[in-house]
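Our collaborator T.R. sent over the components below with a one-line note: 'Predict the complex.' Nothing else. No constraints on interfaces, no templates requested, no preferences about which chain binds where. So this is a plain run: every listed entity goes in together, and whatever single assembly comes back becomes the starting point for the next discussion.
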Amino acid sequence: IVVTQSPLSLPVTPGEPASISCRSSRSLLHSNGYNYLGWYLQKPGQSPQLLIYMTSNRASGVPDRFSGSGSGTDFTLKISRVEAEDVGIYYCMQALETPHTFGQGTKLEIK
Amino acid sequence: QVQLQQSGPKLVQPSQTLSLTCAISGDTVFSNSAAWNWIRLSPSRGLEWLGRTWYKSKWFNQYAESVKSRISINPDTSENQFSLQLNSVTPEDTAVYYCARWTEFPRQAFDVWGQGTMVTVSS
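Returned assembly:
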């Protein structure tokens, strides 16, 4: 399954919203009704960390300004109001089958 | 909380074997709801899942096709850790290597990551 993100670069003014799109080459909708798509953030100098699992569930400790949505092959990560600590590279990943595949990454920077 | 601590050499010579270890604390390598993975990040290939090991009454392994002929991921039950061996390395294997825990449904995600090891393949 090929996963494609856009944009690859995202400059954002603090306090403004941001949105990242993720598309998969095949539907990520499982027969159980869940869409198997996750989002990860790699902050500068750190390992990737889980942000969102199963399309829309925030991982422990993730602020509620982060939200995920979508179904089938089209998914979106939204940040309602970007803060300086949100800089880094955002990756979507299909969790439906192995090999689990990641998007190319979207680099969010502060204007 | 669960932590993964990686160790291993940062420089490997071409044609040699890359070996890394990931020590688990706060969980067990025998977990019935987790799998233990290796993932790498390079400028040319991005984030690439390499393989995993997991226990469900017996040990299982699964590897990415791109490295299947050269890779081995093994549990070390006495030390509660798991390892990566990648044989016959080339400069294309230069990358940051991460170990990561995969948690099954309802999470279905890599929810804990090691600190990463930058491995350079060079003579």
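Summary for T.R.: Chain B has a mean pLDDT of 97.
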